[in-house]
Amino acid sequence: MSGKVTSVVFVGVGGQGILLASTIVARAAMLSGHQVKTNEVHGMAQRGGSVIAHVRYGAEVFSPTVPKGTADAFGALEQIEALRYAHYIASDGLAVVNAQSVVPVTVSSGAATYPKDVADRLGRAFKRLVYFDAGERAMELGNIRAANIVLLGALSRGLDLPQEAWVKAIESSVKEKQRDLNLRAFEIGRNIG
Amino acid sequence: MALRELLSGNEAIARGAYEAGVTVATGYPGTPSTEILENVARYKSDIYSEWSPNEKVAFEVAAGASCAGARSIVTMKHVGLNVAADPLMTLSYIGVEGGFVACVADDPGMHSSQNEQDTRQYARFAKIPIFEPADSQEAKDFLMLAMEVSERYQTPVILRSTTRVSHSRSLVELGERKAVQRAIGIEKNPPRFVPIPVWGRAMKQKVTDRLVSMAEEAERSGANRIEVRDKSLGIVTASMAYQYVREVWPEASVLKLGFSYPFPDSLLREFAEGVDRLLIVEELDDFLEEHVKSLGIDCQGREFIPGVGELSVSRLRGSRARMEGREPTALDKKFAEGLPARPPVLCPGCPHRGIFYALGKHDVVVSGDIGCYSLGAFKPLDRMDIILCMGGGVSMAHGFDKAGDRRKVVGIVGDSTFFHSGITGLIDIVYNRGSSTIIVLDNRTTAMTGHQDHPGTGLTLMGDDTRAISIQEVGRACGVGRVSTVNPYDLEETERGIAEELAAEEPSLIVSLAPCPLRERRRVGPVRAIDSDLCKGCKKCLLLGCPAIEFDGDVPKINRHLCGGCGLCEQVCPHDAISSGEGN
């Protein structure tokens, strides 16, 4: 194998903006001269289900999906989804988890219960954990939908990509009207942890 | 340096069609294939593209274009090829003029499908070539190569993708569009194009002979290559499995197949002779393994490689451990234990919810269909008893009825699937004196696959206005005497409408009409809230299975960021605790 491959996963609930976050990582890696592969979920799984997106970059990448136990960076937009996919992270990987819960219908309908020990489990599941309310930080900018980019900012500290690549990647991935908001959201995240 | 872009496999196939000089492209939406044609539609000044009502029609339109001389593609998911199997089998006989490539995407792991069939079997069945790309660059290159092979041998060709190939992105070098000058117009040559028995028999011979020369081409093709590394283990693989193999067995020699049928037998023999132990790593069926064994070559495969579900680096690491007599390393999933499942659900504000809730009031058999409404099978709605295939909900309802099921039968079909294959079932019910009630969940789009237009929407894939075909008028023209329309956001109207049609002793068609709010990108009405002083905790609202109504043991709350504003919960609440005012 030639050179180290860096693996990133994002997990959450369909509709939380995972795809945009993973696209930005892919573009930032590409702009930094790496070979890049990504994988995303379409179709049925997008309807409010549990979702995962993969990004891998390096000199030579084969599988577009991240092998379990190897993610160098792990971003979760919902906290029980963080636990569901915790086995993806490498032992020294950085996890950034949004302290937010989206109650699944299985809980609302009484078929299952929401675990009471989420924070405790997260602490045990991830050695390097940044755990904060990304939605609340996004609300400082007046838009809760930027939570994904705040989270990405915090996660970017665990990835060896230069600041200017991140900025360019964000600028080329969002609409012009949203650029300023997203760049600020990224900065807020990058200063966390 | 050539321009390189990060493209998904589907975008790359579309780009390949553009660069190969394709002028006609057709398809029917289906995950994971849908984005191929959506991306082809971006080249509208060079390529005519259309969503056809179903895959059989799409296949035939592209086949007609190809027999007239145009380069064409048709796109569909694996189960779509079942619908198009009839024209596929005989197009192999009459052959094509302009290149013809059927781009078919399999779904190992059933991420968004009702079965896990392996399209490679169709290549052998129809005696035509198949190409299997392993990344986006190959997706583009193989489409172009397939187009040339198709023209050289006058045969339809299959390009087989999978969910992971279609929905993974990797870098692709872009090229120019090839100027293809082809005369358009079918030549008068019935022995060539008319497979009545006298000419069809000769065609069968031609198809059989063609396989031999195509196998010779596969032997030499750059799409099949031997990578020599350590010779103690040699692996034959194709498609995405190749990528996993390179990570799990980085030291092994590999025969990577891209032009995988007709089988390149000499290449298989040459590779097998050069290695001590031969392993076949393929996703889904033992397609290659059976063949390699039939050549008398000793190999292993299925005994170590899973044949159910999709492969991955992690699963193949387990296979390697078993081959080497080690215990596979168990993954520590203890943090995921006891977590509540999060299955996909009908979106907040989804109009289908009203129908399923209303159907819950009746003791009926509900035979369903493929689409978002498949999610109506989950609790708490739990109002779908059986699903077979697109359009199957209509005809199976008639079957239940004729079998003498004592309960009334309701068949569910979507708007897009009504045009796909629901109409013939409806005709059958009328013709053969059935009495089923058919409900068309008309949300004015093909929603599950990402909102594609269809014959009922009044818009074409290329963005032109067209005549919107009325489902109600089609129903009447099929001879249904009782055709009605209900607003599924009005529970009282919906429940009454269903009750009336169930009581009728003749076939009926109910069109549940409300556009998909996800496509409209707006709320149906004002955000609702629950007044906790009025709420008695009866949990009736939870029976709607709405993801915006959250409950974890206390009183239900409505998440205002998620609420779709449909107001169904307000209608369901017996204590008037839900309203569009400010709750608490």
Automatic annotation (TrEMBL), chain A:
Write out the entry's keywords from A to Z: Oxidoreductase, Pyruvate
Output this protein's name. Answer: Indolepyruvate oxidoreductase subunit beta
Domain Pyruvate/ketoisovalerate oxidoreductase catalytic intervals: 14-190
**Lineage, please?**
Archaea, Methanobacteriati, Methanobacteriota, Stenosarchaea group, Methanomicrobia
Alphabetized Gene3D superfamilies for the sequence = Pyruvate-ferredoxin oxidoreductase, PFOR, domain III
Write down the Pfam families for this protein, in alphabetical order.
Answer: POR
Say if the entry is tagged with keyword Lyase. no
Q: Name one GO molecular function term.
A: oxidoreductase activity, acting on the aldehyde or oxo group of donors
Whether Flavoprotein counts among this entry's keywords is no
